[in-house]
Amino acid sequence: MTDRDQDKLPFTEHLSELRDRLVRCFIAVGVGFVIAYCFKEKLFDILNAPLVKVMGGETKMIFTGLPEAFFTYMKLAFLVGIILATPVLFYEFWMFISPGLYRKEKKLLIPAVLLSIVFFGIGSSFGYFIVFPYGFQFFLGFSSETIQAMPSMKEYLNFSSKMLLAFGFVFELPLVITLMARMGLVTGEFLKKNRKYAILIIFIVAAILTPPDVVSQLMMAVPLMFLYELSIIGARLFGKKNDGESEQGKFEPEVEEVED
Fold it and tell me: pTM of the full predicted structure?
């Protein structure tokens, strides 16, 4: 009996497990939301810092609707709550899919959770410290003597949160592909062979997720190409192809001899 056979559960058991893990995820997000809301003004100042720096500290956020500021702070606290709960969310996700893995693959779960958090943080930080200044300079370049930028709280939060989440998730590329290779879904040779198509997709994704200027698009596309190359290395190191080939080569002569 294989490791997977030993971990098989009835469908109702999987639903019950999914429910319990979702409840723990919601609780973790709720706790993170309460903590974040206590520091909502400070958090918004931190999020707003790149724009203030580009505008020379001469700008103030506005809100055009009476409840806009309140709901903006609520949404910001919710997003930060999700970020604070990220370790729990990643852990519950990897643990939920663990029954579909072999015992030796389960040993990779804890490193996978930690690396998920690290890559997400690196991607979000890259967007905040590197991409934001250049993107804001591009948009503010349309200002003139008769046109002045007056960013609202709601619009700025929507734009900045989408950008940070986008950079955080796309930086998960090496980890996701390496795990796919570990499960035998892709191989290093397959990724290498289809590199040109991957580069095309990378530039399309960068054009969609970033502001419409070449500099910002390149600042997402170039790291993604580097991450793709890192994914190829990870697929070659941790993929199942070599193990499968070695096992096949080991037992194939014996099978042939028995058949003869």
Answer: 0.76
